[in-house]
Design brief:
This protein has 323 residues and is of the alpha+beta class. It has 13 helices and 4 strands. Strands 1, 2, 3 and 4 form a 4-stranded antiparallel beta sheet that branches. The radius of gyration is 52 Å and the shape is elongated.
């Protein structure tokens, strides 16, 4: 019996010792929360450690919220941390929003943080608008002259639209599209150079911030440069294309004419060959006619005389004239 009692006492001592070690480990945090009136018990701290939640972070966030008059329950802070959220940044955002009279509660701030957006930066941007400079946007006026424009967009974050709203890239893309449309509808590039404000007014009136997490306050034209004469380049390219088409058609006609010429030469050669063949048969025909009595000897000599006379006339006609 004494042995069992001794073992029980030892076991109780070990448990008490373990509890004392845990309490000693979290005593400073508990004391810090106690004097800050943040109301975090030792058992809550031990539970945080068992749940693998850093007590230091939760206690600091709890104290910060209580001191700012915006107390947040430790269970909400733990749940946000376990959801891989940034607890301190959410609390700082709540305090900044409260100081700036911006309506924001912990649930909204936690949702914005878990959505991957920097909620503190969003609150700061609501108070101090951000200037976004767009890259160089090129567009062509109706007279064919290209213009390069750079704009600066002043935006303010809209807390209520941060969850599900489009980001800065969408705003920049929409503004670029508006610049291209504005310059493209101008009758002359000189109108844009004389009054660059026409671009910003038209783009700003288009409601480009719809569906985004921002409110566009102003669009200012930072720089406008004249680029190439796109109209002249296109006309030159078209003329060059027409020239190549005409050259191709001329080459086609030349090839067809050459083919027709070669075909005609082939026909002439064929006719000459047939003529030579026919002339070769004349002596045989004349011999046959003489033999059959169809051609007399005198007729034959008369034919020879005519051939000789014809040959003499050709030679006389081809002889050069005496100077």
């Amino acid at each position: 019996m004494n042995t069992l009692l001794t073992a029980g006492i030892v076991l109780a001592a070990i448990i008490v010792l373990i509890l004392l070690v845990f309490m000693a480990k979290f005593f400073s945090l508990w004391l810090q929360a106690l004097f800050s009136r943040a109301n975090v018990s030792i058992f809550q701290l031990i539970g945080m450690r068992l749940r693998k939640v850093p007590p230091q972070v939760i206690v600091e966030a709890r104290i910060l919220s209580c001191k700012a008059g915006l107390p947040v329950d430790t269970n909400l802070l733990e749940a946000h941390y376990l959801s891989r959220g940034n607890v301190l940044r959410v609390i700082q955002a709540l305090i900044a929003a409260n100081k700036a009279n911006i309506k924001l509660d912990f649930k909204e701030a936690a949702a914005i943080d878990l959505a991957g957006r920097n909620v503190l930066e969003a609150v700061q941007m609501s108070v101090n608008p951000k200037v976004i400079e767009t890259p160089k946007v090129s567009a062509v006026a109706l007279d064919g002259i290209q213009l390069h424009a750079i704009t600066r967009i002043t935006v303010r974050a809209s807390i209520q639209k941060l969850v599900g709203g489009a980001g800065e890239e969408t705003v920049v893309a929409r503004v670029g599209e508006g610049i291209v449309s504005s310059i493209g509808s101008a009758q002359s590039h000189k109108e844009v150079l004389e009054n660059p404000n026409m671009i910003s007014k038209k783009v700003l009136a288009s409601g480009l911030d719809a569906g985004t997490a921002f409110e566009i306050l102003s669009i200012d034209i930072a720089d406008v440069d004249v680029g190439q004469n796109i109209g002249a380049i296109l006309e030159t390219d078209r003329a060059e294309a027409d020239k190549k088409i005409a050259q191709a058609k001329a080459e086609e006609r030349r090839a067809m004419a050459y083919a027709a010429e070669q075909e005609m030469k082939a026909k002439v050669m064929e006719m000459k060959a047939k003529l030579v063949e026919a002339e070769a048969q004349i002596p045989m025909a004349m011999a046959s006619a003489l033999r059959d009595g169809k051609l007399g000897v005198m007729d034959y000599y008369n034919l020879k005389n005519i051939e000789a006379d014809t040959q003499m006339r050709k030679e006389i006609g081809n002889a050069p004239e005496a100077k």
